[in-house]
Amino acid sequence: MWTNLSKPIIGLAPMDGITDAAFRETVDLISKPNILFTEFVPAEGVAHGATRLYSSLQKHKTTTPIVAQLFGVDPKAFYKAAVIVLELGFDGIDINMGCPDRNIMKKGGGASLINQRVLAATIIKAVKQAVKDWQNGKTLKSLSLRDEAFGWIERNKPLKVDRTYKPVSIKTRTGINQHDTVPWISTLLEVEPDAICIHARTFLQMYKGKADWDEIAKASLLTKGTNTLLFGNGDLNSVSQAKAHCKMYRCQGALIGRAALGNPWVFTNKSPLLSERFGTMLKHSKLYLKYRQKLKLFPMRKHLAWYCTGFAGSRILRDKLMKIESLVELKKLLIDFLNQPLKT
């Protein structure tokens, strides 16, 4: 998959609670990034058949590659979860080794794997073995899944499963309390992942301070001459900036994250009209309800607020959006805002 994409590869970064099926489809329809990632999904939950988590593994029909991201600590669960996401037709598997959420860290997952390098390597090997076994014909029936889980996967997987090789990648950070890029990335390279994406901050930084892309340049010296692609992430606001960083810091791609919030146009050079922005808010909300039919619009409110910045009256509109409960209310609110008389 990675080898078929022209370089540099510029994609949408995985973001917990954000890059769900509705958001990915919205971004893909509007600005067509080179690659998309799911929000991270717990490998243990997927493996144990917790179907309430499977909604995160819904996806739309597209020619854009979609990679499923997993997190957790149990190599056996990663193996089983990897087979499941492969059966669902994802184009690759990404392993989260960079999430700074303290609850996940306490359980040994996310960025805490930076300091558990034997376990990190074992998890990668387990996922790579799952890909190999799946290529050779391993099926869901061998996983001893609960009937409910088996049925959900059967209903949502492609009619024809493409058993070509699917790449395994890692999303991580430069260290825990300080940059530890060279020894950490060297450890990852020993087990030969297909790609490594580095958020150029430590765990301690969370999302604060400036992303240090010089650390990514250090990693590029390590990946040079290997079969592992290197991606950078952090403080990227446009495709042109991402491409410039790839050239300057010698990586094969970059992922854009927070700049896409309320801005699915980020992978284009377009600045949408207010009417187009509002139309996209409605379309995004409809997609959300399509994928999450048992839920209301409450979880969409954060997205609606992100759309409402940078224009006159946006603060007042945001306050009103935090109270809407249905598509009907949303549509009326946006129409009324567009039709209000201009202040002179």
Automatic annotation (TrEMBL):
Identify the keywords attached in UniProt to this record, alphabetized. Answer: Flavoprotein, FMN, NADP, Nucleotide-binding, Oxidoreductase, RNA-binding, tRNA processing, tRNA-binding
In the UniProt record, does the keyword tRNA-binding occur? yes
Catalyses: a 5,6-dihydrouridine in tRNA + NADP(+) = a uridine in tRNA + NADPH + H(+); a 5,6-dihydrouridine in tRNA + NAD(+) = a uridine in tRNA + NADH + H(+)
Entry annotated with the keyword NADP: yes
Q: Which cofactors?
A: FMN
**Function in brief:** Catalyzes the synthesis of 5,6-dihydrouridine (D), a modified base found in the D-loop of most tRNAs, via the reduction of the C5-C6 double bond in target uridines.
What is the name of this protein? tRNA-dihydrouridine synthase
- Name the source organism: Candidatus Roizmanbacteria bacterium RIFOXYD1_FULL_38_12
